[in-house]
Design goal:
Layout: E1 2-4, H1 7-20, H2 25-43, E2 51-55, H3 59-73, E3 79-84, H4 92-101, E4 108-111, E5 124-128, H5 140-152, E6 156-159, E7 180-186, E8 202-208, H6 214-219, E9 224-226, H7 229-235, E10 250-254, H8 261-273, E11 278-282, H9 288-294, E12 299-301, H10 306-312, E13 315-318, H11 328-331, E14 339-341, H12 343-351, E15 364-365, H13 369-376, H14 382-396, E16 399-402, E17 408-410, E18 416-418, H15 431-444, H16 449-469, H17 477-493
Parallel strand pairs: 2-3, 2-5, 3-4, 5-6, 6-7, 7-8, 9-18, 10-11, 10-13, 11-12, 13-14, 14-15, 15-16
Antiparallel strand pairs: 1-9, 16-17, 17-18
Helix pairs in contact: 2-3, 3-4, 8-15, 8-17, 12-13, 15-16, 16-17
The structure holds ligand NAX and potassium ion.
């Protein structure tokens, strides 16, 4: 796991590194600029390309000036610098880098409040106007300049963070940003990069190491952690010699209805392919033929004999395609089992919120945004939504899997894990049912809820990434199920 820091913590890490390495602040800026340039050169190998570097007068602007000098030294001969002199203050390191730039053959133009901006004639923009120091929404001359640059419609590469995007906290829907094709960000992705609102600010981001003290960073109390492949390799267990189906647990899937039987099948299929020793689907009898045809590995039980099957199960999923006529309250009176509630089960919970108190501790809820808001109230932004999820997870001692491009996995202690895998090709019906089946299978195999959640979300996204890399622009849920075992194997086999 990697700690994801707030902008205040990032400043702390800067200060700590400067004091203890020790390194002068301007040398740290040089290191950051070098790291940026190295990454930039991978993205844009053509050294004849014309580049406009727009700089503010803080440290983000200082980075921009150092980048201009370093690019020129690396043979990029067509670099122009604009400086936005809209603030009366400039940082010391900005001033030092401006003085250094005077020895380089790079044209520099300065713009003051109310100045007209010339047309942008360059092919690439490097955005070093404002970075993590952003403390209010863009307005006035800053907004005018950003709109002018956006209107030029040339690819922009942001230094650290696109101008106008707060590094953390609420991103208001009215916020305007300098749109970046890519952001090259320092040391850690910024929190807001994981929120859907950042889609307005950039297409993608790259993280570059600028040598901040990693031990210090990892010892900071961080509410958000990013899951990495090495964590999954640490959690995922291989199949044991002399093991048998009983070793890997029994998953019970309570799902399906006349018109939504597919959800139950997908969920049960995902459980089989995620290694549950046995999977039983508790579905209406009319789904039996389809179940046998599609997944003969799955056993069937009618709703009437649910109580006995519940006794035998090691983990239970309730919800995919279930409909809203089942008695969830009654089910929650059965003996406590590792439990996943999804889809219609979440709607039933939302209709009768007092049932939240009956959930066994560590139950896993897997809402998408709308289901979450139905359960816990409307939210106008993701920052508030995730913070509500943290409070509710603690209050109800549940795991909340808030599904998103980067799924937030919120644990009963309020800690948030961010899943890095997955892609837009997976945005299709049935994907959530597959995730629920995977989660239930891992719970049935005896993984604790926190680990089962992290495993399921990571492998779900990873299977999707694998298929996308093979050329699938759209991934049907059934294809994803089939890719789970090979994804699993690739994770176990990889040693990087
Ligand atoms: N030692 C360090 O602190 C390092 C900082 N680095 C760079 O420094 C950046 C942060 O620099 P700063 O803290 O100087 O801040 P910025 O350069 O992001 O912003 C400069 C100043 O602009 C003002 N401002 C903020 N939002 C505004 C708005 N909407 N309208 C008008 N003015 C606004 C604030 O007074 C702010 O301090 C990082 O993003 C990164 O690029 C890197 O050089 C790495 C090392
Ligand atoms: K920037």
């Amino acid at each position: 796991m990697k700690n994801i820091l707030t902008s205040e913590q990032m400043r702390e890490a800067d200060r700590h590194t400067i004091a203890t390495e020790p390194i002068a602040s301007v040398d740290l800026m040089e290191r950051a600029a070098l790291a940026f340039v190295k990454a930039f050169m991978q993205l844009h190998r053509d050294k004849n390309v014309s580049i406009l570097i727009c700089c503010g007068t803080g440290n983000n602007g200082g980075d921009g000036l150092a980048v201009a000098r370093l690019l020129q030294q690396h043979g990029y001969d067509n670099v122009t610098v604009w400086i936005a002199r809209f603030a009366s203050r400039q940082s010391t390191d900005f001033a030092t880098n401006l003085a250094k730039l005077h020895y380089c053959p790079i044209p520099v133009s300065e713009f003051f409040p109310s100045d007209e901006f010339p047309a942008v004639t360059q092919s690439i923009l490097i955005d070093a106007l404002l970075g993590s120091g952003l403390n209010k929404l863009l307005d006035g001359d800053w907004l005018r300049l950003v709109q002018h640059l956006n209107a030029a419609r040339i690819p922009s590469i942001a230094v650290d963070i696109p101008t106008g995007l707060p590094a953390d906290g609420i991103v208001p829907s009215t916020a305007q940003m300098l749109y970046a094709r890519e952001a090259i960000t320092f040391q850690r992705p910024k929190l807001s990069f994981f929120f859907p609102e950042s889609a307005k600010a950039m297409d993608k981001f790259h993280v570059v190491d600028i040598g901040l003290d990693e031990v210090f960073i990892e010892n900071l109390p961080a509410d958000f952690k990013l899951v990495e492949a090495s964590d999954i390799r640490g959690i995922l267990r291989g199949r044991k010699r002399f093991s048998h189906k009983g070793t890997y647990g029994h998953a019970l899937i309570i799902a399906g209805n006349t018109h939504t039987m597919g959800a139950a099948l997908l969920c049960a299929g995902a459980s089989v392919y995620s290694g549950a020793g046995l999977t039983t689907a508790c579905i209406p009898a009319e789904g039996l033929l389809a179940l046998n045809a599609r997944y003969p590995e799955v056993m069937y039980t009618p709703r009437e004999t649910l109580a006995e099957n519940w006794e035998d199960a090691d983990a239970v999923a309730v919800g995919p395609g279930l409909g809203l006529t089942v008695d969830l309250q009654h089910m929650l009176e059965y003996p406590a089992k590792p439990l996943v509630l999804d889809a219609d089960a979440l709607t039933l919970l939302a209709r009768n919120k007092s049932l939240m108190k009956k959930l066994p501790p560590n139950s896993v809820l897997t809402p998408h945004m709308k289901e979450f808001d139905r359960l816990f109230g409307e939210h106008s932004n993701w920052w508030d939504r995730v913070n509500t999820a943290r409070r509710r997870a603690v209050q109800h001692q549940t795991v909340i899997v808030l599904k998103n491009q980067y799924t937030f996995m919120i644990m009963p202690d309020g800690q948030v894990y961010i899943n890095p895998t997955g892609n837009p090709a997976m945005a299709s019906g049935g994907m959530g049912d597959v995730l629920t089946g995977m989660l239930t299978a891992f719970l049935a195999q005896g993984y604790p809820p926190q680990e089962a959640t992290i495993l399921a979300c990571y492998m779900h996204g990873s299977a999707g990434d694998r298929l996308a890399a093979e050329g699938m622009a759209v991934i049907p849920a059934t294809e994803l199920i089939a890719a789970i075992p090979v994804t699993w194997d690739a994770i176990v086999q990889s040693n990087c």
